């Protein structure tokens, strides 16, 4: 009986070690799959051509990365939800709203859309759609939820319908 217990404990330890090794290997991979390192990007603030934000500079914080365009109706509808969330949780979670600028008819459309709306979370321009390409964004809106260690925790294709949906996704982040 003692040998069986020892064997089971050893099998459990080996299994745990293999699982831990596989997870460590996955953490080193960059990509948009859950558990992978989020692709890094540097984009400029919508209101300041000289100021940029780099995702990797936010390591240590939970980050919500939302891809949007001014012509996208669901994007426009979810912006107030994102603003309410940011006002509530902005100290604990960083929110980055990345405009797919190359998809805009004119870049000024992004400026006109946000003008006077009172959005206080960082609104960013991606003039060559490099960030959205790295995240393989095909439809809008798309939102990625990034853990404080820089890995992708979850993502949502389509509109964030309400505050509860957004909060529940962020609450799952580590």
Descriptive overview:
By secondary structure, this protein is an alpha/beta fold. It has one domain (31-171): Glutaredoxin (3-Layer(aba) Sandwich). The chain is 37% helix and 22% strand. The chain has 5 helices and 7 strands. It has helices spanning 2-27, 73-89, 108-114, 130-134, 163-171; strands spanning 42-45, 48-54, 62-68, 93-99, 123-125, 142-146, 152-157. The chain has a 7-stranded mixed β-sheet, with helices on one face. It is elongated.
Describe the protein's topology.
Elements: H1 2-27, E1 42-45, E2 48-54, E3 62-68, H2 73-89, E4 93-99, H3 108-114, E5 123-125, H4 130-134, E6 142-146, E7 152-157, H5 163-171
Strand order of the largest sheet: 2-1-5-4-3-6-7
Q: What letter string, H or E per element, gives the SSE order?
A: HEEEHEHEHEEH
Spell out the CATH superfamily.
Glutaredoxin
Uncertain spans: none
Question: Any key phrases for this structure?
Answer:
174 residues; Glutaredoxin; 22% strand; alpha/beta; 7-stranded mixed beta sheet
């Amino acid at each position: 009986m003692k040998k069986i217990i020892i064997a089971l404990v050893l099998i459990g330890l080996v299994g745990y070690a293999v699982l831990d090794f596989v997870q460590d290997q996955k953490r080193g991979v960059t990509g948009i799959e859950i558990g992978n390192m989020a692709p890094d990007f540097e984009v400029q603030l919508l209101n300041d051509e000289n100021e940029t934000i780099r995702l990797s500079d936010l390591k240590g914080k939970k980050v919500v990365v939302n891809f949007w365009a001014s012509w996208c109706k669901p994007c426009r509808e979810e912006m107030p939800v994102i603003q309410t969330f940011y006002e509530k949780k902005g100290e604990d979670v960083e929110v980055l709203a990345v405009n797919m600028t190359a998809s805009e008819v004119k870049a000024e459309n992004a400026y006109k859309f946000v003008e006077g709306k009172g959005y206080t979370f960082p609104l960013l321009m991606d003039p060559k759609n490099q960030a959205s390409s790295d995240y393989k964004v095909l439809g809008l809106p798309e939102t990625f939820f990034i853990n404080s260690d820089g890995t992708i925790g979850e993502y949502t294709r389509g509109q964030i319908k309400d505050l509860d949906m957004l909060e529940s996704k962020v609450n799952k982040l580590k």
